[in-house]
Amino acid sequence: MSDLGGASMVRQNPRRVTAPEEALEFETSKEVQVVTSFADMGIKDDLLRGIYQYGFEKPSAIQQRAVVPILQGRDVIAQAQSGTGKTSMIGLTVCQTVDTTSREVQALILSPTRELASQTEKVILAMGNFISIKVHACIGGKSVGDDIRKLENGVQVVSGTPGRVCDMIKRRTLKTTHIKLLILDESDEMLSRGFKDQIYDIYRYLPPVLQVCLISVIPLPRVLLEHDKCCLCTFLFNTDTCET
Ligand SMILES: Nc1ncnc2c1ncn2[C@@H]1O[C@H](COP(=O)(O)OP(=O)(O)OP(=O)(O)O)[C@@H](O)[C@H]1O
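A: This is the predicted complex of the input protein with adenosine-5'-triphosphate.
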């Protein structure tokens, strides 16, 4: 997509799945389709089984818009309120994206807190129940030896906090050569405060061809959209804020 100015955005009528509250709007890049069923997202059968077994019947509003662009390999900014299914969406897209026959790390998810990184690991393990996905939560406060053992045994996904992930990369225990997808959860947090330098530090070790997804609760600066491939899926719960 080359034009991300106002003209390329479309507003869609609100259709919230997870919380039937006041009228809400979406702003998306214009080519974003609303896909209302997991079965129509091109998801592999064994993963679909895992999703249904996990108790999901229908994608939430943000999932209906952002899952397919992520699976298409687009760089995506997905912004939506807390509790709207963003973490689950990360789990689902990562499970679909990685090759579970490989032992290489292919997806790296960075979160600002240990709890969130662990939660994401659990979602991936639960949804990926039938695809034998190997994921490791690489977080501070846990044994470094354990990290090393797990990573050396081979995992396809790392869900971690920036400090420990950076440490593992610098020790060459976490090999970055095959990483094709970087997801920053709560990226408003990750790109502010003390995390920014750590994120840049990690980014330097990642392959030049990389899909990046930014997941956020609050709208991110517009400047992040200004590159050709970026796709926006925003849940507009405060129109004024998002227009600036
Ligand atoms: N499609 C879905 N169908 C049913 N339940 C869902 C769906 N997507 C997410 N949920 C459930 O909704 C709750 C919130 O989902 P999730 O944690 O993914 O949202 P979130 O936007 O990341 O929220 P937070 O910012 O609070 O972490 C969880 O209990 C999750 O299992």
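The chain has one domain: 6-243. Strands lie at 9-12, 25-29, 76-79, 107-110, 135-138, 157-160, 181-184, 211-216, 231-236.
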